[in-house]
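Technical appendix A lists one of the benchmark inputs used to test multi-chain prediction within the project. The record comprises two sequence entries:
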Amino acid sequence: MKSPDHQGYDELAVGFALHALEPEDEAEFARHLPGCARCAAVVAETTEVMGAMAADLPQAEPSEALGARLREAVASTEQVHRPTAPPATDAPRAVPPAGPPAGPAVVPAPRRTRALSLALVAAAVAAVVGLGVWNVGLRSERAELSSTVAEQQDVVDALLSPDRVVLDPLGEDGRPVATVVPQDGDIEVVTHGLAVNDAASTTYVVWGVGDDGAEPLGTFDVERSQTELRTVGSGLTGLDDYPQYAISLEPGREAPSDPTEVVATGQVTS
Amino acid sequence: MGRVIMGVVTSPARRPDDAAGDADVMRRIRAGDRTAIDDLYARFRRPAFALARRILADDALAEDVLQEVFLSVWKEPAAFDRARGSVASWLLAVVHHKAVDSVRREESQRRRQAQAEDEMALDAPTATRDVEDDAWSRVVAEQVRTAMGALSAPQREALTLAYYGGYTQREVAALTGTPLGTVKTRMLAGMRRLKQELGGAGGAGALGAWPAEETQ
């Protein structure tokens, strides 16, 4: 018999295959899956059942133009031949996977970081959208609804920006806690897991890190643990010139000249 | 478990003997044969399009998803090697994943809300057909519908919203006024039941190895 608490992982495995997990569950399952043959099997079997469910749909033809468009794209696209990186286990990759979360490393292998970041960004987007439906369920006033949707759209746009930099925490469980989107004139900061700070006596500071050390780019507070979007550093220029960004938590309300306690860092990957 | 039975489950709307041909097409893609993508597209464009447009409720977005999926298969056919099971279920899982990503990106909350109400009203896939299905497809569809009919109404609702609607577990919980934990349990229990219905009464395999327990 299985251990009784594997029921929880069975549930996560089904949700994972359905691409329906919340980000925190996705992260937990991504940590568990590589070592668990049972979960690999549950994911694979769920994927098979999903394939069958697709059979009961109105069959339809895509346009002829799509075939031509695809042929054209294939003709101009080279195949990716990955360097020798066989999967560590026989865990299934039935759906585009979220890899196991990175450790606290600041400079992991670039490709892995990129893929991981994308997966977690997708998860964060899903969380934001999830909140939206929740809000819709609770509040039906039109004005409130449209402003909620607009806010969410800003967050989603930021999380999907090609210029985004995902920041990993230091010494934590490795889940990204913030995404920054550096633009020339300001920086958008989406927090998705940074601790709420005491806005009376502390402030978060965004740093641009280059060859000459760290430059403070702006300050912000985290008022709630849910996903939030902040714009910082308005009025400055050249904010998008750094190869690395960091966030620190500082005593007082002003940015110091050097960071005191760095809580998260991220490299520009593009 | 019996191969023939698995053939029904793993070859959505397709004949069991297509599987060997699918695997052969994937081998040609891995070998860099660009014409093999045409063959893969010819084999799967209909079920893939049917699934994507069901989730997206928009033909143009659904076509974008198909383009993205088939191009990604060309670029990185090795992704299939890491999967278990048939080419068909793997490919349709990728279509599902990308379509769900797309719907979460593209669709306004209001529209999704309206659609969710439709989903729940429908409670099961529709039976209309835009193109003529052959007899085999109808048999498979009928089996799936029968299997869906074996689920409890809450299980069917949860899986329908997640799979055909592209909703997350938390969204399903909000839409159905159900605690998140109960939604998770329902999805697992529903999947176990579907697996049993589609894969034979033995219910062998990791999903079906234990009785589907649900507290409500």
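The CA atoms of residues 185 and 214 of chain B lie 7 Å apart. Chain B touches chain A through 100 residues (CB under 8 Å). Comparable benchmark entries are summarised in Table A2.
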